[in-house]
Amino acid sequence: MKLYFSPGACSLSPHIVSREAGIPLEYEQVDNREKKTKSGADFWSINPKGYVPVLEIDNGQCLTEGPAIVQYLADQKPASGLMPAAGTLDRYRVQEWLNFVTSELHKSYGPIFRPTTPDEYKKISKENLGKRFDWLDKQLAGKQYLMGDQFTVADAYLFTVLRWSPRVEIDLAKWPNVKAYVDRVAARPKVQEALKAEGLQ
Ligand SMILES: N[C@@H](CCC(=O)N[C@@H](CS)C(=O)NCC(=O)O)C(=O)O
How far apart are CA 99 and CA 66, in angstroms? Predict the structure, then answer.
């Protein structure tokens, strides 16, 4: 299988999951501005939506949308504990987290990165993120990971978006549990491996 990624983008989440699960993937870098892959392919022809991540599965099909990709990868290695078994309440809890990260956090960062976004809009996006972090900080009190002691795909995704904070001048020190969580996830050997492979360390 091949993962199309852009360094540090949300594709870092499935990248981390592949390494945590011990699934060997081919990784192909995408130039998100030019919409070209490292080997010169037209990225629009790979994902007509024009964004990473994309997982090309061995049968030639492509799967898009990070939250779907991480579940697919984790389900290849159920013993990894990265995704609880289908039908269990814990599975829906992890899906609840994935949805929170994608809709309440991930898509609030996007406009802050864009140079064309009006400052007033950026300010509102940051305030909204701050409100979510107030809540998140309480959820993480006394916990190693979102689900307790078990690292799951939701942690790979949450970590991926939280690490964009310094680039948009959000200081996570205001939320000590969130800050400690980011440091804890960053210290995981497989996370370190993924960061190094993307040239982020
Ligand atoms: N809904 C998609 C969004 C993916 C997304 O926002 N990807 C960004 C990187 S974090 C991207 O490739 N953006 C390039 C673009 O939109 O031109 C998902 O969750 O996978």
Answer: 11
Structure confidence by residue, pLDDT tens digits, 152-167: 999 999 999 999 999 9
CA atoms of 184 and 2, how far apart (whole Å) = 28
- Please tell me the residue having the least CA distance from ligand 1 atom 2: 65
What confidence category does residue 38 fall into, taking pLDDT thresholds of 50, 70 and 90? very high
Rounded to two decimals, what is the model's pTM?
Answer: 0.98
Q: Whose CA is nearest to atom 20 of ligand 1?
A: 65
Cα of 160 vs centre of ligand 1, distance in Å, is: 13
* pLDDT > 90? residue 58: no
Pocket of ligand 1 (CB under 6 A): 6, 9-10, 32, 50-53, 65-66, 102
Q: How far is the CA of 142 from the centre of ligand 1 (A)?
A: 32
Of 72, 76, 97, residue with least CA distance to 151? 97
